[in-house]
Design goal:
The complex is a heterodimer of chains A (about 250) and B (about 300). With about 250 residues, chain A is mainly alpha-helical. Chain A is built from ten helices and no strands. The two termini of chain A are about 30 Å apart. Chain B has two domains: about 5-215, P-loop containing nucleotide triphosphate hydrolases (Rossmann fold), CATH 3.40.50; about 220-275, 2-Layer Sandwich (Alpha-Beta Plaits). Helices cover about 40% and strands about 25% of the residues of chain B. In chain B, the strands form three sheets. In chain B, strands 5-6-7-3-8-9 form a six-stranded mixed sheet, sandwiched between helices. The chains are: A mainly alpha (about 250), B alpha/beta (about 300).
């Protein structure tokens, strides 16, 4: 019961500010951009072969990696702002077992991340469906393709949100936490690939392409395990930090 | 009974000792004022009591139990800490609903408390648009949400209007009369004088006075003598606090009246008057905390004023 109470409180925290609406607006913009590309974009030869097959369309609308980026920022902001506004204090007063309180917060952020990722993926598939009639190609994605895309995005949303929540718990300053998230997601992976070529198979961009069914660079299970590690490391660091540090 | 116990608590931030082997108790059924200059360690003590900060040594408990081990903390302790913890974009009602959800309180309790603190009319407004007094009322509503027997309040009167202060005073007195434990820090000495039965006074992280306020206020002695300097030196060396009163008399605290007379007699200092003296809380507070470091800015102003005076 305690868990449910805490998670319910955390979900209410997320849904009673404008934060989710801000991210929803970002998703609408991304979907609109996708529709614009479908309607007006062409290949180098002026054709629209990039949407000519089911595989091409699946590759175009695969949102999982972008979902991870968006939800990582969502998770980072959702947790770090708790420290900025000191709203973490009543949370730890209501539940002085801090790891439990932090896990409840991560669970709520995870659910929020999954919801945002699913909405984002659905909007982009919808944008494709709306934009395709303006071209000579039809909507070629099967129910199986769509299910796989939605599942991959949901997982990416969960992974990104937990990763962000972990960073937000470690770095309590909002600006610092967002900067850290950008470093971890945008700077660290290409840097790792520069240093060790084999790392390219294990960065989120590659892993989520595999999970979305667009590539087979590593096995699906290996990709699932690796993405989980990407989330668990910062989450574990966040839990340790919350337990060991003074709250205020 | 929910007695609060602070036992040999020491807290350091880096090399700075914020609390130094601090020990005191806060009893049930009384309002205890917690006093000290800025930076004396009041907020840190409260945070350690509430397990929001850890002590380097010693421990703090509520009814013999650490805060983190309380079975139902939100129904046991109501808390207002500075600075207030609100998201400016969230409504007052939603702020309380989140706390009610987390602690398992019935949702109708939220409206009851909003009504009780006079915020029902502003319940849907964002907290960012609240005045300081309204935020303080919301914090008090949050503290009372679980109807707890213990209240730990850090500067709860900040920003309240006179009616609000009166309301708060009545509320806290009522809680204490019902057997509750009320531990309240404040800079408003006149307000504490009206409100508190007991006081705990910190100076530079150390306990300098604790006990029943009425007794402490009467624990001074007025001494008239033609040799104030040697008598002051003598009494201070023996551990008393001495300052000059408004009419040139010495106000002595921390030493029984009989001992003052005996020491003066032994030293051959003639006394012209030796009488009990009741002081205001402000006088007492200034006596207790006169060893506190002067803030850097104030010191700079004082130095500049002194230099100017010398140059004239």
């Amino acid at each position: 019961m305690t868990w449910l109470r805490l998670i319910r409180a955390e979900i209410r925290k997320l849904t009673t500010t404008k934060l989710p609406w801000g991210f929803f607006a970002v998703l609408v913009i991304l979907a609109a951009l996708d529709a614009t590309v479908v309607m007006f974009g062409t290949d180098m030869d002026g054709s629209k072969t990039f949407i000519s097959t089911a595989a091409d369309q699946q590759s175009l609308v695969a949102f999982a990696f972008n979902a991870m980026l968006v939800t990582a920022l969502f998770g980072t902001i959702a947790v770090a702002r708790e420290y900025g506004h000191n709203t973490v204090v009543p949370m730890f007063l209501a539940c002085p077992k801090r790891v439990r309180a932090e896990l409840a917060q991560m669970a709520a952020v995870l659910l929020g991340g999954v919801a945002l990722a699913l909405i984002g993926q659905a909007l982009i598939i919808g944008a494709l469906a709306i934009a395709l009639p303006s071209t000579e190609y039809g909507f070629l994605l099967s129910v199986g393709d769509i299910t796989r895309l939605l599942a991959a995005s949901a997982l990416a949303g969960a992974i990104g949100a937990v990763l962000g929540a972990g960073l937000g718990a470690v770095i309590r300053n909002l600006g610092g936490a967002v900067t850290a998230a950008v470093l971890v997601l945008f700077i660290l992976p290409p840097l790792a690939v520069q240093l060790v070529n084999e790392a390219a198979s294990w960065i989120p961009a590659t892993l989520f392409v595999v999970i979305s069914g667009v590539s087979t660079e590593v096995s699906l299970w290996a990709a699932l395990m690796a993405t989980t590690v990407w989330a668990l490391l910062p989450a574990a660091a966040g839990l340790v930090a919350v337990q060991r540090r003074d709250v205020v | 009974m929910h007695q609060l116990e602070i036992e040999h608590v020491t807290k350091r931030y880096g090399h700075e000792v914020v609390l130094d082997d601090l020990s005191f108790s806060v009893v049930s059924g009384r309002v205890t004022g917690f006093l000290g200059s800025n930076g004396a360690g009041k907020s840190t003590t409260m945070k350690i009591l509430l397990d929001l900060a850890s002590a380097d040594s010693g421990h703090a408990s509520i009814a013999g139990t650490r805060y983190r081990d309380l079975k139902d903390p939100a129904r046991t302790v109501g808390v207002v800490l500075e600075p207030n913890a609100f998201h400016p974009g969230r409504s007052g009602r939603n702020h309380l609903r989140i706390l009610a959800d987390a602690s398992g309180f019935a949702s109708d309790r939220v409206d009851t408390m909003l009504e009780a603190v006079g915020l029902a009319h502003a319940a849907e407004r964002h907290v960012g648009a609240y005045s300081l007094g309204m935020r303080q009322r919301l914090g008090i509503a949050a503290a009372l949400l679980g109807d707890p027997p213990v209240l730990v309040l850090d500067e709860p009167g900040n920003g309240l209007d006179p009616q609000g202060i009166r309301w708060l005073r009545d509320l806290l007195r009522e809680r204490a009369s019902a057997g509750g434990t009320v531990f309240v820090s404040s800079h408003l000495l006149a307000e504490v004088e009206h409100l508190a039965d007991e006081v705990v006074v910190l100076s530079n992280g150390q306990l300098v006075a604790t006990g029943e306020l009425a007794v402490l206020q009467k624990a001074g002695t007025a001494v008239k003598t033609l040799s104030p300097a040697p008598l002051t030196e003598l009494l201070v060396a023996a551990g008393a606090t001495v300052r000059e009163g408004a009419e040139g008399e010495l106000i002595v605290r921390g030493m029984p009246i009989a001992e003052i007379g005996e020491r003066a007699c032994t030293a051959g200092i003639a006394l012209h008057e030796l009488s009990p003296q009741a002081g205001s809380l402000e006088e007492l507070f200034l006596d207790w905390t006169k060893g506190d470091a002067i803030p850097a800015v104030d010191q700079a102003i004082a130095d500049a004023t002194e230099r100017k005076a010398e140059s004239l």
